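Appendix C. Worked example: lysozyme
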Amino acid sequence: MISYSSKFIYSLLIFFVLTEVRIDGKILTECDAARELKNSGVSATFLSNWVCLMKSESGLNTSLVKGPGTMSSYSYGVFQINSLKWCKIGRKGGECNAKCENFADDDITDDIVCARKIQSTEGFKHWDGWVKKCYKNEPGLPNVNGCKSNAVKRHAVMRKLIDFFN
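Step 2, the predicted output written as structure tokens:
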């Protein structure tokens, strides 16, 4: 028989496993990236291209900042969004009306909104990493079809927890 204190500790452990903890930046897995993109409304048809772009531009690192580049510009986050045109350093601005530093945290929802704007106006060819590593490289694109949603994972953990206490 398991004591109440053990059950409490196990319950806390499960709570922390199921709760997303936000930090300043992180390295995403391909499946994490695909889930974030899909949750933001990106078509499943292009998920592999988007994940390949993210991987080639930043190594899936949400906090990557590169620069200075052209005209002392910097590139931010998992999509390497550039401060010359798309955002402004220290304040909102640019074509995405965003503060560049906000693209270098682990919340990539705003990054995706801006990246989709870039893609819709300039295409994937805007990103050199995509052109070099993803364009016309169908076999080299990440296979994200097998990525499960967070809901499926949480359901499996909850099932194990229920079985544990029964």
